[in-house]
Amino acid sequence: MGNRITRINFALALLAAIGAIGTGYEGYQCWKIVGINARLEAGRTIEDEAYPYQRKFASAYLQGKANDYKHAVQSYSQLLEMSPSPAQQASIQYNIGNNLFLSGLQRRPNDDGSLKDEAKYDFSQARIAYEQALRMNPDLQAAKFNLSLLLSAMPANMKPAPKDQSGVELSNLPIGLP
User: Fold this and answer.
1) CATH class of 47-159
2) Domain boundary assignment for the chain
């Protein structure tokens, strides 16, 4: 009987030690996450290599916050290549749409009051991004709201802006001949 109680006590002590180690590890992970959240709230980038997705997302967010919409969209697009979950992809598409929408709003209209081609392109790309976000997550209320805002800001008869084809060669002559 005494030997059995000793084995049970040893097993319980071992379980308690494993639980204490697990609690310590989880506490350390929470401490790291609190530190990352504090850096984000302070508007600083994440320097911890253990969180590459969060690091890139924070960088893209801060670029958009600094009105550097072009680079923010590029950074968000790079995040899509990290193959996150569908919910994360919807969030990324939503943020791409936001940055493109803000970029289009920032552009001044032409002298006749019409939108510049760059603004038309930004608006049409923002619309595509919002629709993509809603395809991935139909319950994303913020994307629905922003899409309705975008559609109300876009002229009804707006045609998409022509895509930039500066890299297209106009003749069959190689470039750079004397």
Assistant:
1) mainly alpha
2) 1-44, 47-159
